[in-house]
Write a structure and sequence with these properties.
This protein has 15 helices and 17 strands. By secondary structure, the protein is an alpha/beta fold. The longest helix has 12 residues, at 60-71.
Length: 427
């Protein structure tokens, strides 16, 4: 079979965020907690403008709070927001979007806080849903906000971006790059050195390790990305580590919103890499790769394998099978990309397959057309001989993609809406 290199596919999300914050939204209910959040913003580099937002009618105390902050040297605006039929959290989130701020700084407790949580319900909603950086101000202040900052990292692109952007502010007094795990990974010391920080490893559960290090170092702040590498790939909006640290840290926590490019790369696995596919396929009908007869194509989102497709060389033809995306990574178009890579590399051959019923439009976008089962090569046809020709009962459709260049026609078909798999083994 002719082997043509599979091109790398990349997807960039967002744009690089600013090195410093120019405008900070501070929700206030005129409590001690919201006052403390506003005071903490005075430590931010660049002296950003503060927007005090109160949900409800303008009250004299709100303007008095603004004057207090102005006396401390801050540029302050005041805005009141009508709650209408919204929750307080939704009213604030709408305002965050409307104002286009760089950062939301919020006290960890509000007047309506739940007693069994370390964050109030409004603070928690802002943390989970605001598409911007969030500063959660709770616990004691051991000094200026960035005097001694603990920065947890898993060395994923998202966490490295957060560390580099924080270092670029030039405001960090002492930075500590923390990895929690059995041993320090390669690259930790080099990254810390490049940032001018200290490297630290703690062999403990991740959240407990971060909290313990923050207490031990008397950190003035903990700063981390809201998602780690695997979280970003899976589309999780708030990773469990960021959530756990925000709920339990003994000092303010800066949760950075990721804007790093997520690299999507389709490539054919070498035979020595087949065990990577076997692990992902473990729960997929006992599928495994055989280097003697298989070509396996994988989609990597950064370093995480998120989708697979197999082309098996039978004595009488080539069969596409085992198109599979693990559950956490579905719904993001990964199956489409890996099938595109397989078809591009194997376009010189007639490709046969049994498509799960309902996915005919999905595969049709790559040039596959339904055919009678009798047109399948005998080896491929034999897989469903038990159905005695009743493909509807077997819930599969025999399909063929005639040999030919993977080009404009296929790409045009790919732009058309395709039926989402939502099932079993495809996307």
């Amino acid at each position: 079979m002719y082997r043509r290199p599979v091109r790398a596919l990349r997807a960039a999300r967002g744009v690089p965020r600013p090195v410093t914050w120019s405008r900070v939204l501070v929700p206030t209910d005129l409590s001690a907690e919201s006052e403390r959040a506003a005071d903490t913003c005075l430590d931010l580099p660049g002296s950003p403008a503060l927007l005090l937002v109160h949900v409800g009618e303008l009250v004299p105390a709100l303007e008095a709070e603004a004057e207090r902050l102005r006396a401390l040297g801050a540029a302050v605006e005041v805005r009141t927001v009508d709650r209408a039929t919204r929750t307080i959290a939704n009213a604030l989130l709408d305002t965050v979007h409307e104002e286009g701020v760089d950062l939301v700084a919020i006290g960890a407790r509000g007047r309506g806080r739940a007693l069994d949580r370390l964050l109030g319900s409004v603070s928690e909603a802002i943390l989970r849903r605001a598409q911007t950086d969030v500063l959660i101000v709770r616990g004691r202040r051991a000094g200026p906000l960035f005097a001694r900052v603990l920065v947890p990292t898993d060395l994923s692109p998202t966490s490295i971006e957060a560390a580099e952007q924080l270092a670029a502010t030039g405001a960090i007094g002492e930075g500590v790059l923390l990895h929690v795990g059995p041993e320090a990974p390669a690259g930790l010391a080099a990254l810390a050195s490049g940032l001018g920080w200290q490297a630290l490893n703690r062999p403990a559960p991740v959240v407990a390790g971060v909290i313990g290090a923050a207490l031990e170092l008397e950190a003035t702040a903990v700063a981390l990305c809201r998602v780690g590498g695997a979280d970003a790939v899976a589309g999780i909006s708030l990773g469990p580590v960021a959530e756990g640290v925000a709920f339990a840290a003994p000092c303010p926590v800066l949760i950075a919103y990721p804007r790093a490019a997520l690299a999507l790369t389709v490539r054919e696995l070498d035979s020595v890499e087949f065990p990577l596919a076997d692990v992902v396929w473990r729960d997929y009908h006992g599928t495994w790769g055989d280097p003697a007869i298989d070509r396996i194509f994988a989609l990597f989102a950064d370093r995480t394998l998120v989708a697979l497709a197999q082309c098996r060389r039978h004595p009488d033809g080539y069969e596409v099978d085992a198109v599979f995306t693990p559950v956490p990574f579905r719904g993001r178009g990964y199956a489409r990309r890996v099938v595109a890579g397989l078809v591009e590399a194997c376009h010189n051959e007639d490709l046969y397959m049994y498509a799960v019923a309902g996915l005919e439009p999905f595969y049709g976008a790559f040039g596959f057309v339904p055919i009678p089962q009798t047109r399948l090569p005998p080896t491929t046809r034999a897989r469903y001989d038990w159905a005695v020709g009743d493909m509807q009962a077997a819930q599969v459709t025999p399909m063929l993609r005639p040999a030919g260049w993977y080009g404009r026609d296929d790409q045009e078909r790919r732009r058309r809406p395709a039926v989402s798999s939502g099932c079993g083994h495809n996307a």
